[in-house]
TrEMBL record:
InterPro entries associated with the record: PFOR_II, Pyruvate:ferred/Flavod_OxRd, Pyrv_Fd/Flavodoxin_OxRdtase_N, THDP-binding, TPP_enzyme_TPP-bd, Transketo_C/PFOR_II
Domain Pyruvate:ferredoxin oxidoreductase core: 285-389
Domain Thiamine pyrophosphate enzyme TPP-binding residue range list: 553-659
Family designation: Belongs to the pyruvate:ferredoxin/flavodoxin oxidoreductase family.
Keyword annotations from UniProtKB, A to Z: 4Fe-4S, Electron transport, Iron, Iron-sulfur, Metal-binding, Oxidoreductase, Transport
GO molecular function, one term: oxidoreductase activity
Span of domain Pyruvate flavodoxin/ferredoxin oxidoreductase pyrimidine binding: 37-262
Source superkingdom: Bacteria
A Gene Ontology biological process term: response to oxidative stress
Protein name (record): Pyruvate synthase
Lineage: Bacteria, Bacillati, Bacillota, Bacilli, Bacillales
């Protein structure tokens, strides 16, 4: 059959393209394009906290800032809840605000998000979708997105990196429109879209983007107008709150119309068209699948194959789900006999995911409509969606169309039945308390000093004690976590119950159905580990009191934290300390968020390079000093606080024995051990022990204890004539070599002076028990 071309239209299209702003072709991921759009817009501020898979957005922006490619103020918060507060405050102050998050981080900040939409302050946030734990899974599904359906934010969807770039630009226009004034979310699939690279066109000149979004709108209420002081977020009673909610609801529906206007304008400068619904071969479709984001692209290929067989198949994929495009869906589905909707998240107990019921309700409003809706939960936890899966989805729709009903209206797709023979089996025989008792460690209270006297044998005498963690873990070569933890555990006698917060130590020791832990292990997220273990502790003592548990010796309860856990988890840790539960919090300090790719944490020292404190012409690593968690915890008046490293084994063993005694007899203990991270410190694998030893001898990481409020330095490099300059320690790591260059002399001096100040203050405390 001959193909006819509309030469007049082609000429018009060609002329239109010639008048469009210049665009360049690149090959980038969704995260990179989100950062590109933000940099070109040049937001005032981004408050952020690292969580996989959205972390890269902040990383890319930090790297771009070091090169002078934008002026965005990047604020590393202490957790997602804090980042949402930072963003809300900045938006209330009248500026343009940006953020990116995922999964449990989104849930942690969700309390703040209705506050922002309810008080009508615009911003743009990228939700890089990921499975909600527990159990922990970092791959992409839509379980986090579904929690955001009721927070009052318009939600745009981006199925590929091109759409991520375009939607981020359009989102700001929608958010700031006078008829909307709401924060807007751009959601795209974690790892499928966030990390996979595709061809993308972007505007060569950032002024094109800035002209499109326009200047910050004026004339609206904000917190920084001295001529017009305002009250933001006042307490409301009925009927004020229902009126406020009505206005917000109307603004949400207007956002759908505004998106259409903005998308039409964007098409004129980009040549790319974004309807509210992405419809593929739906003009006369009788069966269709309804899918969000990246999975829809796979289904389109199958639709083509079915069309070639004479089956009228189509694909519906929304570019916007808040507001819900009811009218557009009704129009698209008017000829359908059956539609199969696949959802990457369940509404447990609801006989279908959230969008299943919205789709059913929308179709029910069509008089006489008999479209059959089939629903399946698929792709949970990032399970891939292949060509064969799309064929199965269409087959379900075709079966329903042929029968006139759906034999199984709702089910899961892609799950596998359990096999008792494949159930995880113990590889090692359980080890009980006696196996971990050496009988060589003796701790006795000294009535005269009020402190503990500890006798420990040489380390070689304790080598017979089994390790608490089996060797089958997946840590990087040279990781300091395991020598540090195992050395500490050598000083602990008997049974333990250990809780690991999310972090490298947790991730590399547990991968279902396997575990490297020889005794009871619990996991909870950064922000709630201390509270969780305190609940375990108190339940143990209460059940023991009631006679429900009989044990010869009490457990020692240990929470292991690290990878920035004492940023996001500091609040609950302080609460646990104030309640003085009988447990140990042990922080392994690797100076960053290493499990998410080496972002700066508050434990990262000044000037050190991370993936969110890059080194370049505009900045030289982290710009502020590190947090002293040991001193913070000592200020809560818990009975025992200590620092240690594997480089001084006898010192750490002695402190571990003390920690156990206090945790079993008095109350909470906090310990901080410095451990090496060769991958992100950019050091040789075998140099970890030497580096942490140098950190001690430079007085950056002093060894001391605070026992019942009295500070004692347990190793004094000055007295032992082992003191080295901070500069000599920094030379040992690639992440800090830049500090030894002349252009960073001022920063190096500031860092060294702070190390001296903290060391001298510690010595004063050592010399005066009342400090």
């Amino acid at each position: 059959m001959a193909i006819e071309y509309n030469t007049e239209k082609m000429a018009l299209d060609s002329a239109a393209k010639e008048t469009m702003p210049e665009q360049k072709l690149t090959f980038e991921s969704g995260n990179e394009m989100a950062a590109m759009a933000a940099a070109q817009i040049n937001y005032h501020l981004m408050g952020y906290f690292p969580i996989t898979p959205s972390t890269e957005v902040a990383q890319f922006l930090d790297a771009m800032k070091t090169r002078g490619e934008h002026d965005i103020v990047l604020i590393p918060a202490d957790g997602e809840h804090g980042s949402a507060g930072v963003c809300y405050g900045a938006a209330a102050a009248g500026g343009r605000v940006f953020n990116a998050t995922s999964a449990n981080g989104f849930l942690y900040m969700i309390e703040q998000l209705p506050v922002q939409s309810g008080t009508r302050f615009p911003m743009v946030m990228n939700l890089v979708t990921r499975a909600i734990s527990g159990p922990l899974d970092i791959r992409g599904d839509h379980s986090d997105l579904y929690y955001g359906l009721n927070i009052g934010w318009p939600i745009l969807l981006a199925r590929d990196p091109q759409a991520v770039y375009d939607m981020n630009i359009m989102a700001l226009r929608v958010a700031e429109h006078a008829d909307v004034r709401l924060p807007v979310m751009v959601a795209y699939d974690g790892f499928f879209t966030s990390h996979q690279k595709r061809r993308v066109n972007y505007f060569a000149d950032r002024k094109t983007v800035q002209n499109f979004v326009g200047k910050v709108p004026s004339g609206y209420v904000h917190a920084l107008d001295p001529e017009n002081p305002v009250t933001i977020g006042p307490y409301m009673n009925d009927p004020d709150l229902i009126n406020n909610n009505y206005q917000q609801s109307e603004a949400m529906y207007r956002a759908g119309e505004v998106f259409k206007q903005v998308a039409a304008e964007y098409e004129k400068i980009s040549g790319r068209k974004y309807e509210v619904l992405d419809l593929y071969r739906m003009e006369d479709a009788e069966v269709a699948v309804f899918l969000l984001n990246s999975a829809a692209e796979t289904a389109k290929d199958v639709a083509d194959q079915l069309r070639a067989k004479g089956i009228k198949a189509g694909v519906i994929s929304p570019n916007m789900i808040r507001p819900w495009p009811a009218k557009e869906i009704q129009e698209a589905c008017k000829n359908l006999k059956a539609i199969m909707i696949g959802e990457r998240a369940d509404s447990y107990g609801g006989h279908g995911g959230n969008l299943t019921h919205e789709l059913k309700a929308t179709l029910q409003e069509i008089k006489g409509n008999e479209t059959i809706v089939v629903s399946r939960i698929f792709g949970v936890g990032g399970k891939d969606f292949y060509h064969d899966d799309a064929e199965a989805f269409f087959a379900l729709a075709m079966e329903a169309a042929e029968l006139g009903y759906a034999p199984v209206p709702f089910d899961y797709f892609g799950h596998t039945p359990g096999n008792p023979e494949a159930a995880p089996k113990r590889v090692l025989k359980p080890l009980h308390g006696d196996a971990f008792k050496s009988g060589l460690i003796h701790v006795t209270p000294n009535e005269e000093t009020g402190k503990l006297d500890v006798k420990i044998p040489p380390l070689r005498a304790l080598t017979g004690k089994p390790k608490r963690i089996a060797p089958g873990h997946g840590a990087c070569p040279g990781c300091g976590i395991f020598p540090g933890l195992e050395l500490f555990f050598k000083g602990i006698e008997g049974d333990i119950v250990v809780l690991f917060q999310t972090g490298c130590a947790m991730v590399v020791t547990t991968g279902y159905p396997y575990s490297s832990h020889k005794q009871t292990y619990i996991h909870n997220l950064f922000q709630n580990g201390a509270a969780t273990l305190s609940g375990v502790v108190e339940m143990f003592h209460e059940r023991k009191r009631r006679g429900e548990i009989q044990v010869a010796d009490d457990f020692t309860f240990v929470m292991v934290t690290g990878d920035g856990g004492m940023d996001i988890g500091m609040g609950p840790a302080i609460g646990t300390a104030l309640r003085n539960h009988k447990m140990i919090i042990l922080e392994y300090d690797n100076e960053g968020y290493m499990n998410t790719g080496s972002q700066l944490s508050y434990s990262t020292p000044m000037g050190h390079m991370t993936s969110t404190s890059n080194v370049g012409k505009m900045q030289g690593g982290k710009a502020f000093h590190h947090k002293d968690t040991a001193q913070i915890m000592a200020a809560t008046n818990i009975p025992y606080v200590f620092t240690g490293t594997e480089a001084f084994p006898q010192d750490l063993l002695k402190k571990a024995a003390k920690a156990q005694w206090y945790a079993q007899n008095v109350g909470m203990v906090y310990g901080k051990i410095l451990i090496a991270c060769p991958l992100n410190w950019k050091s040789a694998d075998e140099q970890g022990r030497n580096i942490v030893e140098a950190a001690v001898n430079s007085c950056f990481f002093p060894l001391y204890e605070v026992e019942r409020g009295v500070t004692t330095i347990t190793y004094d490099p000055d007295a032992r004539k082992k003191r080295i300059e901070v500069k000599d320690w920094l030379k040992m790591m690639g992440k800090t070599k830049h500090l030894t260059k002349p252009e960073y002399a001022e920063m190096l001096a500031s860092f060294a002076n702070e190390v001296d100040r903290r060391w001298n203050r510690l010595k004063a405390k050592h010399e005066n028990e009342y400090l």
